[in-house]
């Protein structure tokens, strides 16, 4: 597949890691400026599936149960005295996203946006209602 993703892919090769990352970065680019400014050094990683350590830490048994996860401390819990910590990370998991896409029929771009916003919401310590409002703000 060349370029990125349309909203709902046609049969053929499933979207690549790079295509999902491209879409997630587009979602981040559409965030309101106040949110983008406070993402700081958060790293976006798109991987095939969650590793066993991540699954175990969340009490999950199968990698298709996890579409994304935020590793870090929410902005409101950070301190000026924090140092030496790994950068906050947002992980998106391609295989679980594709499985959910097939199960639900939700547009793939909407699903990637939803997962991306949800993990960004954890970075900011947002409620589910606030995450939905932010998701609406970045809709095409």
UniProtKB/TrEMBL annotation:
Pfam families: Zincin_1 (PF06262). This is Metallopeptidase family protein. InterPro entries: Zincin_1, Zincin_1_sf.
